[in-house]
């Protein structure tokens, strides 16, 4: 049986540029910040609509 996460798994915000493109430098910064805080994992496309973008 796989390990079950027991810590924090925040929904990661998806940053966009003013042009509506994915802001990769900001996304990297957000991921690195979350990981430095010791999260167990990251959830993407939580309950928001950015998945279609």
Present the secondary structure layout.
Blueprint: H1 24-36
How would you describe the overall organization of this protein?
- 25% of the residues lie in helices and 0% in strands.
- With 53 residues, the chain is an all-alpha fold.
- It has a domain at 9-34.
- The model has no long low-confidence stretch (mean pLDDT 84).
Mean of all residue-level pLDDT scores: 84
Number of helices: 1
Largest sheet: none
Quaternary structure classification: single chain
User: Which strand-content bin applies to the residues?
Assistant: under 5%
Summarize the structure.
It contains one helix and no strands.
Keywords:
lyase; DapA-like; Aldolase_TIM; mainly alpha; 53 residues
């Amino acid at each position: 049986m796989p390990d079950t996460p027991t810590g924090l798994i925040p929904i990661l915000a998806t940053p966009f540029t003013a042009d509506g493109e994915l802001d990769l430098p900001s996304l990297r910064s957000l991921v690195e910040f979350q990981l430095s805080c010791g999260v167990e994992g990251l959830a993407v496309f939580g309950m928001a609509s950015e998945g279609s973008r």
